[in-house]
């Protein structure tokens, strides 16, 4: 039985730029087998597109609540989106 593939868009708020957040996010996503992207946004937040098996994406979202020890996450907004067939995990901005 295969695990359902899901896609989650996430925006992380707090001290999340200039602390290696995107690189830690990429490493964690690759460790969990999650595809997608991570990017800094002009408003100081970090935006993620996460796609893969539900258990892996959910684990990634759980990790984003705290992020790496160098970051201070004060908020996380997520919403599920249509699966796009993403492959790999890239830092895009």
TrEMBL record:
Residues 7-93 form the Acylphosphatase-like domain. The keyword Hydrolase applies. Its EC number is 3.6.1.7. Keywords: Hydrolase. The active site is at residues 22, 40. Belongs to the acylphosphatase family. GO terms for molecular function: acylphosphatase activity. It catalyses: an acyl phosphate + H2O = a carboxylate + phosphate + H(+). Pfam families: Acylphosphatase. This is acylphosphatase.
């Amino acid at each position: 039985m295969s695990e359902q593939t899901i896609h989650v868009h996430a925006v992380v708020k707090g001290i999340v730029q200039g602390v290696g957040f995107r690189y830690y996010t990429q490493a964690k996503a690759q460790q969990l087998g999650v595809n997608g992207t991570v990017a800094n946004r002009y408003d100081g937040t970090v935006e993620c597109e996460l796609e893969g098996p539900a258990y892996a994406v959910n684990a990634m979202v759980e990790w984003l609540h705290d992020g790496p020890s160098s970051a201070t996450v004060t908020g996380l907004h997520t919403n599920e989106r249509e699966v796009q067939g993403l492959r790999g995990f890239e830092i895009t901005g």
